[in-house]
Specification:
This protein is α/β, with parallel strands linked by helices. 41% of the residues lie in helices and 12% in strands. It contains ten helices and five strands; from the N terminus they run ααααβββαβααβααα. It is elongated and about 90 Å long.
């Protein structure tokens, strides 16, 4: 006599939906694999952002390709955007800023030498600017000098005042870090720090041509402004509760990570240190994106 064995609930459900039990378990295996894949990707994202805490998703996507290769994981950019959005890891842009430039002074203002200039090598053009960092009970002011070709930060200085000495210290560091003996233009806004006698004297002593924006237009020094924003936005330096000295140390670590680790879409995804060893036109990989407009819209 044939004995009827009770069918499992899974078997009944599979039959109702016209699926085999193998298909059901295959779905579970694929779901488990997807969860493991997401976990690996997120762990690698957190590892990268340990040194580059607010690195944009497009650059993360580029860096993750090599890091995920040992796991045999391929990763699309849109998938990464969606994954980071789901886990609230997209970088939201911040609004700024405080006034750090006073161009209403009697000192000599120089003309703009960079209009139409094609930058094709490192140390052809340096751009300079000052930005603020909010401390607990005061403001700190960060002076930066950036190479326009490689985006490498050549010199910096962090002070509690807006005197010219901070800019002079940053300039001195940049000059000490030069790698090439070729003609160089220094471009800045018309702030009193850059027009001061002592600052101009350092430039002239080192045979560096002087260029300044016209009519105080910030778009004429947009690259310097952009680097300011990267350092503050991606390294959480808009404000600091560490105190002045500890903040200064954090700035140094951030600039080191920026120069050594952060790829630039405007430099063919090279880091600034890598790009500083190149010459000729570097391929620009940045585009305008709309899907995540409120997030990372200036991720260059």
């Amino acid at each position: 006599m044939k004995q009827d064995f009770p069918q499992s609930g899974i078997a009944v459900l599979c039959r109702l939906f016209g699926k085999t039990r193998h298909a059901y378990y295959d779905f579970l295996w694929r779901k488990e694999e997807a969860v493991v894949k997401e976990d690996i990707i997120l762990q690698e994202v957190l590892a990268v952002r340990k040194d580059l805490p607010r690195l944009g998703t497009r650059k993360l996507h580029y860096i993750l390709q090599d890091r995920l290769m040992p796991h045999k994981i391929t990763l699309g950019r849109d998938y990464l955007f969606d994954l980071l959005s789901e886990h609230k890891l997209l970088v939201r842009q911040r609004k700024r800023k405080a006034l750090t430039t006073d161009s209403r002074h009697w000192m000599r203002k120089y003309g703009n030498l960079v209009k139409g200039l094609v930058v094709s090598r490192p140390e052809q053009l340096w751009v300079s600017d000052i930005t603020y960092i909010r401390l607990t009970n005061q403001w700190g002011y960060l002076s930066l000098i950036t190479d326009a070709y490689s985006r490498k930060i050549m010199g910096y200085s962090f002070r509690q005042d807006l005197l010219a000495e901070g800019c002079i210290d940053a300039l001195g560091m940049a000059i000490n870090n030069r790698m090439y003996d070729a003609s160089l233009i220094h471009h800045s806004d018309r702030g009193s720090q850059y027009c001061s006698h002592n600052y101009v004297a350092v430039l002239l002593k080192n045979n560096i041509a002087i260029s300044m924006t016209e009519n105080g237009d910030p778009y004429e020094n947009a690259l310097a402004e952009r680097v300011n924003g990267i350092i503050k936005t991606e390294f959480n330096l808009y404000s600091s509760f560490l105190g002045f000295e500890q903040t200064n140390q954090q700035i140094g670590k951030s600039i080191k990570a920026y120069n050594e680790l952060r790829p630039h879409t405007s430099c063919d995804y090279l880091t600034p240190n890598q790009a500083h060893l190149q010459s000729g036109n570097l391929y620009k990989r940045w585009k305008n994106y709309n899907k995540y407009f409120n997030y990372e819209k200036t991720d260059v």
